[in-house]
Amino acid sequence: GQPDPSVPPSGVSCSGCGAELQCRDGTAPGFVPAEKYRSLSEGPDGAAGLRDAVCQRCWMLAHHGRALRLQLPPEQHRLVLSAALRSPPRHGRGPLLLYVLDLLELPDPVLPQLSGLMGPDVPAAGLLVVGNKVDLLPGDSPGYLGRLRQRVAAACAQAGLRGAPLVDVRLVSAKTGFGLEGLVSRLQRSWKCAGDVYLLGATNSGKSTLFNTLLRSDYCKSRAPDIVNRATVSSWPGTTLNLLKFPIINPTCDRIFRRQERLNQEATKTEDQLSSEEKKYLNHLKKEGYLVGEVGRTFQQQKSSTVIDFDPDMLSYSIDEDPTDSPKKTKKREEFTYNEVKDARWCFDTPGIVKDNCVLNLLTEKEVKLVLPTCAIVPRTFILKPGTVLFLAALGRIDYLQGEKSAWFSVVASNLLPVHITTLSNADAIYEKHAGHELLKVPMGGEERMKEFPPLVPQDITLKGIGTAEAVADIKLSSAGWVAVTAHAEEELLLRAYTPKGTALVVREPPLLPYISSIRGARIAGSAAYRTKKPPSLVENLKTTGKR
């Protein structure tokens, strides 16, 4: 589609990303091709005809999984967010900040910046931290969820947050629904409807997915899902460009009681009592994640019965005529009434804060899809001797330089990223020959791609083992994943880890999943690898039958 610089901006936001719809500049947020823009805005409703429209970028993401690059500097996301947080409090009270933290990214690089985004004169009423993507992590021991929750709480304390007291820490999966009913109950019982709620977090933390799930839960007004469009969701960083919102329902005592009745009733069901469609969807979610939950709705708008327009003239036509369809009537767009929103509290989805020193910033759209895990991560464990090298695609490398005994290296990363083991003497030649090609897979594009890709830079790491059952540390290779290192007690290891220049390499002590090396099958003969082993999935809010 072509732009038309003569047409002024619409004043209407894209229902997918929040950017103002316009047809002036194809490289700016909110672009709609001029022909489409005019067909929507020049109708009887004027600019209101654009209200259900999405911009070209959201349309391409939703229908083709393709991301159009925009001329939008990363600081623009911070300006939008900071302006929202510094606005005067509505209803005489500051907002509740719902910070969405990607558990795979601990320690979260954006959390320490939160205090700087908030204005000193408008303190938030509270901070509730949501550890998202818990469904992707395999349970390495009983009680691992409690340990993960403690790690998130420790990260909050280490970030030194000021001006927003920590209300709670919850673990959820916005994708599979695990923990979402508990989050809604927590919000309704403690925060009630006291003020607005802002979803904050880094890019790719899952804010928009959580926004869409809450939109179809008991947290929003019953008519909202029919009026408010879902946010655009994609693996491309920075999909949301401006504020999106839905109105929060007032959790009266009667509504809380009715909601609890529904939850109690659903908790008595077993998988065998589900309908065939529900079972099919549940099995799909089990393949996607280790932890699964159902998000239901207690308060739903009653649908009016469908009225069929009967046109007898359409049933008669001459032998020389072809039957024609009657013109479709334009469906009237539902709107909130004045009374519904005059004192409403809103839940806002905000633009993600772009992470500095992140490997995703260096990758193409296809490469990002391979690097970001979208289903349950199956850990891959290798036993390595000194003088051995582990490659995680061409995005990370770990050399085992010195040690007395073999050690175990457990890779926690997207199942689509290859792991290659070689000797120290062959490692440089392997990288030179196969980076950009199928063996190492990412980056992709051959020699031309690697000419523009930053070189790997080393960092020496010394670790002391604490026993063969427990990892001593995680070596986090930016956002590509991490490698948990398990060694014999008191055994000193000298390692050298590499990540692309300009990206962050973090040694995480203690490790996030310390017993991860126990999730493995038998050793593969003649190889450094063990057979992979995927733990079973757990379904929340369903009665167990004793079967797996």
UniProtKB/TrEMBL annotation:
Domain NOA1/YqeH-like C-terminal, residue spans: 409-509
Xref: SUPFAM superfamilies: P-loop containing nucleoside triphosphate hydrolases
UniProt domain G: residue ranges: 197-247
InterPro entries in the cross-refs: GTP-bd, Mito_transl_resp_regulator, NOA1/YqeH-like_C, P-loop_NTPase
Gene3D superfamilies to which the protein is assigned, alphabetical: P-loop containing nucleotide triphosphate hydrolases (3.40.50.300)
GO molecular function term, any single one: GTP binding
Residue stretches in coiled coil: none
Protein's UniProt name: NOA1 protein
Species assigned in the record: Chunga burmeisteri (Black-legged seriema)
